[in-house]
Each structure stands twice: as C-alpha cells, then as structure tokens.
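Weekly modeling sync, notes
Attendees: S.R. (lead), two postdocs, one rotation student

Agenda item 3: backlog of single-chain predictions. S.R. asked that every request posted to the team notebook include the full sequence so nobody has to chase files. The rotation student volunteered to paste the first one in as an example of the format we agreed on. Action items at the bottom.

Example entry:
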Amino acid sequence: MTDLLLDKCIAKFRTMLDVCKNRDDCPQLPQSLVIYRVRAVKRGGVCLPRKALEAWRYEKGKIMSVPTDAKPVQTIISRELYREGCACFSISRLRRKAFVSVYFGKNISMGFEYDMHVTKTSFALTNEKVIWE
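Predicted structure, as returned to the notebook:
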C-alpha cells in the first residue's frame, strides 16, 4: 500500500513540474519532494496530519528514507514555489479511504481522496476526488 501511495505523491509532483516548466513566471522549479506517511484526522472534508510515521525524500528520480523529523526546504524560489515540495498521505482507520496532500508553494497545493480496495492479493486506489486546492 505504501508504495502505491508514494507513487501517487511522486506522480502529482511530476505533474506540477510539467505544468510549470514552460511558464515564464516559474524560472526555477522544486528539485525534490519530502513525503510523509502520517496519522491524520479528517475534519470538514480536509485531512489534517497529526503525526509523521515514516518519511522519504524523492530527488533526481530516486527515493530514500529520511528521519520523520526531516523538514522540507520551504524557501520561495520563484513565483510562490518552494525550493522543495512536500507531500503527505494517510489511510483511514478502516482502510476504505486514502488521502494525499501535496504542497508546492505558499498558495499552490492540493488534497485528494481515493477509495481503497484491499484484498488478500491486491490493493487499488480508485475514484480520485479533489477535496481541496
């Protein structure tokens, strides 16, 4: 499950890079992404992280484990983009929903909700829904 959610976070990061790379107002883009698996609480349609359980850094196409207290570099580099993106994901207690939040800059972020389908041999995320932006 974790690998699939890590891939979702990285895919959202890559999509943001593709969208921004040809814009004149984004001469510099984040070069890395810090990703957290978190314990979270859902309030009013928003998933609020409470505690980091695991952390990784995605950089130059590679992902490596980092301490859970690792902080992304949130210096603004261009427009309102951070030097390093940040993402977090969580799974509902009953394993029916998964949540992914990705932060690219001061006012550039999105949250997604997925339905989870878990069997003894497979795991799938379906019905992506944007829950905030």
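Discussion: group reviewed the output briefly. Residues 2-132 form one domain.
Action items: rotation student to repeat for the remaining queue; S.R. to check formatting next week.
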